[in-house]
Amino acid sequence: QAEPLIEIFKEIRKQDWVFSTWRSSYHALLKGMPEEELFQMILDGRSMYVISSKHRILCSSIVGGILPIALGVAMGAKIHGLDEKAWVCCGDMASRTGLFHEFLQYCQGHELPVHIVVEDNGLSTDSETDFVWGMSPWKEITTTYKYERTEAHVGVGSHVVF
Length: 162
Known about the structure:
This protein is of the alpha/beta class. The chain contains six helices and eight strands, in the order αβααββαβαβββαβ. It has a six-stranded mixed sheet, sandwiched between helices. The longest helix is centred in the middle third of the chain and has 13 residues, at 67-79. The radius of gyration is 15 Å and the shape is globular.
């Protein structure tokens, strides 16, 4: 599951922002945050919301919580003519929510500098995403990659099924 993400992150420039959810540690390291700094955040109990303006990364464990913030950053970049992009990494569950659809529509309608990466493990927590939410129409306009999860849902210690 790391290889596709490594390839995607090769396109992310230093001046770009990364907005992430539950895979924040992977994303922070790939964005250039030193391991020691990230490890200290984890020890301080901040692994669910890794934030660094220096490394231009903002993460939240709230499903869809980063979308309005990413939109604001992208709008600011466009208004001020800045050469930066907002890269939004979210799961396939978040990509099925109404908030995501509104975010996507607004970003496209205003031609904002946003690139969306949907990390698709086929699960909404531990329920099959396609069964719970139906088919996804977003695969044509986003970067999506599939992977199999081998561990239980983070923080729960077991699989959670809706």
